[in-house]
């Protein structure tokens, strides 16, 4: 499979074509300066090929290995268990991998070693949070504590392994209920499709074992809501965000937009933010 050549254009691949992946692919097809969508990956290759014909840029439907060869940047927006398959081939070739399933990095830290050894880079976008640049800046000094409280619509927590382990039945929740209190690492294991945000926060700050989280299921809300408090020797940060969900209630619209903003920064003559 031949690489595309477009001068200084960054060649981008999207793996896989779920709700977020399709949203990113469509936006890239509409155009971001210096960025070219050249490949997509999906479990259903035939369906992906049919969907790709709706795009003007006509990306190839590639395997994860082929995508690594074709692309300068691979965007991972897949079920968490696929992260190593998507990221490792690209990192071994010194490429950049934009990771949305960052919770899976905690169980696959060898990917960071692969990136270090081969000159690749793992990039975690801000996603459904805010203020990660401020937390990263605070981490240059001393951070004493990072606490996050998440409130989610009940259906936004469907399928979380923690619920089955604890015997929590979401249908029986009639009022705002705290269903989890623990560390970012524990949340990543118990809610792999729901709480990548707290892992991103922990990696920007004081790590997954010191970052504390509460999760509340709330039948009266329709948005994913996060409140973060950071105490450091440079600033006291208090941040709140309400994310409007996509068709997938576990994912906010701003997640895809965050990836697009990141890609725009990669080639922009003016870059704003840390």
Helices, by number, come to 10
Which sequence of strands runs across the widest sheet?
A: 3-2-1-4-5-6
Rough outline: globular
Q: Give me the secondary-structure category.
A: alpha/beta
Largest sheet: 6 strands, parallel
Q: Return residue spans where pLDDT drops below 50 for at least 5 consecutive residues.
A: 1-7
Which series of helices and strands comes N to C?
A: EHEHEHEHEHEHEHEHHEEEH
The overall pLDDT average reads 94
Task: Name the beta content range.
Answer: 15-25%
Write the CATH fold name of the largest domain: Rossmann fold
| CATH class descriptor name of the largest domain | Alpha Beta
Count of separate structural domains? 2
- Work out the helicity level: 25-40%
Q: Give me the CATH superfamily of the largest domain.
A: NAD(P)-binding Rossmann-like Domain
- The N- to C-terminal Cα distance equals 37 Å
Number of strands: 11
Topology:
Layout: E1 10-15, H1 19-30, E2 35-41, H2 45-52, E3 60-61, H3 64-70, E4 73-76, H4 83-92, E5 96-99, H5 110-118, E6 121-123, H6 132-138, E7 143-152, H7 161-166, E8 177-183, H8 184-190, H9 196-204, E9 211-217, E10 224-232, E11 236-243, H10 253-267
Parallel strand pairs: 1-2, 1-4, 2-3, 4-5, 5-6, 7-9
Antiparallel strand pairs: 7-10, 8-9, 10-11
Helix pairs in contact: 1-10, 3-4, 4-5, 8-9
């Amino acid at each position: 499979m031949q690489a595309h050549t477009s001068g200084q254009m960054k060649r981008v691949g999207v793996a896989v074509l779920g709700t977020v992946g399709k949203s990113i692919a469509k936006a890239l097809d509409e155009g971001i300066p210096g960025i070219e969508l050249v490949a997509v990956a999906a479990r259903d290759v035939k369906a992906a090929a049919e969907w790709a014909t709706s795009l003007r840029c006509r990306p190839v439907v590639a395997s994860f290995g082929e995508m690594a060869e074709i692309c300068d940047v691979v965007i991972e927006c897949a079920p968490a268990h696929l992260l190593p398959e998507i990221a490792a081939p690209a990192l071994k070739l010194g490429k950049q991998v934009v990771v949305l399933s960052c919770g899976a990095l905690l169980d696959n830290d060898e990917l960071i070693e692969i990136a270090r050894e081969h000159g690749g880079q793992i990039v975690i976008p801000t996603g459904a949070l805010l203020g990660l640049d401020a937390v990263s800046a605070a981490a240059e000094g001393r951070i004493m504590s990072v606490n996050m409280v998440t409130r989610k619509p009940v259906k936004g927590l469907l399928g979380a392994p923690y619920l089955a382990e604890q015997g929590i039945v979401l249908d029986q929740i009639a009022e705002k209920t705290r269903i989890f209190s623990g560390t970012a690492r524990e949340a990543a294991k118990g809610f792999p499709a729901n709480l990548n945000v707290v892992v991103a926060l922990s990696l920007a700050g004081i790590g997954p074992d010191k970052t504390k989280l509460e999760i509340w299921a709330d039948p009266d809300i329709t948005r994913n809501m996060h409140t973060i408090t950071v105490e450091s020797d440079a600033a006291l940060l208090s941040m709140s965000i309400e994310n409007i969900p996509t068709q997938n209630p576990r994912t906010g619209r701003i997640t895809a937009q965050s990836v697009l903003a990141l890609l725009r920064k990669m080639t922009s003559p003016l870059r704003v933010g840390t």
